[in-house]
Amino acid sequence: MLSTMQDVPLTVSRILRHGSTVHGKSRITTWTGEGEPHRRTFAEVGERAAQLAHALRDELGVARDDRVATLMWNNAEHVEAYFAIPAMGSILHTLNLRLPAEQLVWIVHHAADRVVLVNGSLLPLLAPLLPKMETVEHVVVVGPGDTSLLAGCRPTVHEYEALIAGRPTTYDWPELDERTAAAMCYTSGTTGDPKGVVYSHRSIYLHSMQVNMGESMGLTDADTTLPVVPMFHVNAWGLPHAVFMTGVNLLMPDRFLQPAPLAEMIEAERPTHSAAVPTIWQGLLAELAAKPRDISSLKHVTIGGSACPPSLMRTFEEQHGVKVVHAWGMTETSPLGTVAHPPAGLSDEELWSYRISQGRFPASVEARLIGPDGSEMPWDGESAGELEVRGPWIAGAYYGGADADPIRPEDKFSPDGWLRTGDVGVITPDGYLTLTDRAKDVIKSGGEWISSVELENHLMGHPAVAEAAVVAVPDERWGERPLATVVLKEDAGEVSYEELRDFLAGKVARWQVPERWTLIPAVPKTSVGKFDKKVLRAQYAKGELDVTKL
Amino acid sequence: MLSTMQDVPLTVSRILRHGSTVHGKSRITTWTGEGEPHRRTFAEVGERAAQLAHALRDELGVARDDRVATLMWNNAEHVEAYFAIPAMGSILHTLNLRLPAEQLVWIVHHAADRVVLVNGSLLPLLAPLLPKMETVEHVVVVGPGDTSLLAGCRPTVHEYEALIAGRPTTYDWPELDERTAAAMCYTSGTTGDPKGVVYSHRSIYLHSMQVNMGESMGLTDADTTLPVVPMFHVNAWGLPHAVFMTGVNLLMPDRFLQPAPLAEMIEAERPTHSAAVPTIWQGLLAELAAKPRDISSLKHVTIGGSACPPSLMRTFEEQHGVKVVHAWGMTETSPLGTVAHPPAGLSDEELWSYRISQGRFPASVEARLIGPDGSEMPWDGESAGELEVRGPWIAGAYYGGADADPIRPEDKFSPDGWLRTGDVGVITPDGYLTLTDRAKDVIKSGGEWISSVELENHLMGHPAVAEAAVVAVPDERWGERPLATVVLKEDAGEVSYEELRDFLAGKVARWQVPERWTLIPAVPKTSVGKFDKKVLRAQYAKGELDVTKL
């Protein structure tokens, strides 16, 4: 039996219409680095989004489903693009300006972007790549920059303000099917080509509601949020769309993501909330220690992107009265997957075990753990498995390219359509996730898993050890076994493998203790400073490591 | 272009699964009137909901789309029915036990309810009606009651606990289309037959998310809410479904809706939030004045159902530290239509003008005002029109009956599908609604509207006037004009119509002042004590009133 409810699609234009009317007085403040920040109301953003849509359609010929890319920082114009492009039925494609040049070119080609909106300050990055970006017909330069860099380039060059000026400030947004593509974002996997995730109007709408729920961020128009997380990282965690739903004011850092200007803008503009990766906050704390600032307006900050050290959370809270809330997600999860508000009624100590977890799943994100033998593991806080998730804002495939079917790599999507996150962890009976390893770093030994991260953490607790990386190596009897690669401190003196082995034996199950050991001068690192274990595995395979078997 | 997001339906079973696992420790406490309240965890409710579904399907033969009615108070078993019936693909039909007997019989017949779940305490109400409820095959008695009243009745009688005992505590909930009917509720209009609103899984899910948003109630598992609003009134304003999404604890009053037990349960169980109509709070304040209780746990209460006197809001806040938040909705709007959290950054005086409004629309509820000439009125806080709303949890039709098409009366739904609320009001530029009249009580004079409520309020401010009702009467020149019917105070002495007219003339526009006046001994009232203006209009039409035209 069908209900008698109205059939109203959940679309980005609905959020825009609401935000720019009911919350028309709410503001986006963009930091300019010098002088007064730039301020614009939601009502103005709504009018300018309409002007942008008219310009894109009438002047640049952008049609439904056309991809329009942005290579921009966090600022009011980027928010205008966030709304105008999906609302008119086209697809917003945010480009990650930190990707290697070849990947950027590959991604623009794969998405077949027809237009690129670029901040003037990023022209030195874009200009040399434009000759290779063959699908791009128009470049729209937003804000000041050296446009001489574009001299002689093939695409037509426009200046944003001149392009939108004088156009109608309202737009008859089309009524779209809520499952229509609205925005896309490519993941930068360490192996293979980048993969495109295509968000729908529905997924953005529902995700925005979740961000605004009390159990997530729960902000209102009495709040101002500072998204330090870039708008080219999973839609700035959904904040730009979410704030238009509830009138939360935005403080935008533009390109000023360094500790000193962040401290300055927090003191001056008094945001109540912020969102960023841990390294940003670590830098901010150091800055504040060197040059104290009043950041008392901040009530809580959401931290995600990588695990946050508990010491950072405690320092922030004790020294600055800022509550740090852990969250987990990925490009494929829009990104809100978990938020670590602890359950009510716990002692301080119990609270911390929840707060340092990745957090609790909301109702729209179903989760399961798949163990080493492919069976589902219980939520007992102890049984580890690869996390798989399902929900209306979770990817079920990757973009296959124009006119191509979506692709569903087996290692990323289960046969029944759940996303394989590639993360290994445990879940408590009350739904709190703790991630321990990347699935590819787990050692599969005799049908059981050994956590390389756990072994590394224990080893690095030994007074003589500077760094340690544990990788899986093939083993005839057990399938895989751990190889411990250890960097000793300069002043460590003599330390035997047996001593390190016995040190571990007191901390993990006997069968998890590595037999294979090697000393190395340094752990190879990726460009972002993470352990590059595939280098170690390759060195082992080629026999380049001097391994002792105990 | 389609997105690559998973296509996951928004269903009641998803809310149930989440609430009974991730929030399995949250609790429903049901007041029993004597001794310890009854306590049950969300995990237990989830298990018992599964048992109920097994019993309904296997024992009572309830199939997909079958209607299962409840005639119950607010208690844990009613919550079990709230989840089990929709989640299994059947339709929950809550019966309003305050309706006249004939209407109850009519509604059960129209919905073709096959089963009625009834609280034992309500058997005296149900038993005499059962012979006329021909579609009902099974009666399930929940809790203690005089079952001898059912002796010899046609339907099979079951006892709830015996019926569900021993059945499996899990159920393989079907994956339903989110637009499937989940629950229904009939409105009790003052004219014509009651009209059935059929909620979908989608509408319940989205409404639950909205209830949990910071701008609405924004509760978390640190909260306990006391829904005094009955579960047979628009799903207790959506609270039972919403709390399972976020783990908010429920304090259920069962049938103890009187001021004394409410005060007692608030003191004993310390809820942080409550929801009820104004008369309940008025009674509670009087009770607390007579017998003080500690209600300091209450942080805020949501008031709706009818306009709340500002004095009540102030008293609650000043004497008890409880913030009263106004909200507006109706059966057709699920019901969340507006919530009156004021905008940020206002002075205390400005705040109150927002707080006494009906409130602000959320992003999912679009609104427009249709003026006397059928055109859309501006949101300027002054131009009045009939409120029409659109959104994913707003009705677009009424239930037509089994195998019948839904019905869309012209006076309730616009040609483009919006709900005509029948309420007249104004909307501020920032989206706050103030209702002034029912559309049928507005006087349409020369293409403009005159608010009967405003005239009445002014007249009742005159020292000699006890009551005043203003109704529209036909007028050759203006279409309609106001007729003022006035009840003088016993000690009023001589008061002329001219004096009353001049009194009004200083307060409203000249053209709004009535020419027609009559003194009556009392204003006719409906069964719930409201002015019954249709009686006055009929008396005027029949020439039964002694009208003076000035």
UniProtKB/TrEMBL annotation, chains A, B:
CDD domains in alphabetical order: ttLC_FACS_AlkK_like
Gene Ontology terms for molecular function: ligase activity
Keyword Transport carried by entry: no
AMP-dependent synthetase/ligase domain: residues covered: 35-399
Record keywords, A-Z: Ligase
Database matches in Pfam families: AMP-binding, AMP-binding_C
NCBIfam families the UniProt entry points to: PRK06187.1
The keyword Ligase is annotated on this UniProt entry: yes
Protein name in the entry: Long-chain fatty acid--CoA ligase
Species of provenance: Streptomyces macrosporus
Signal peptide extent: none
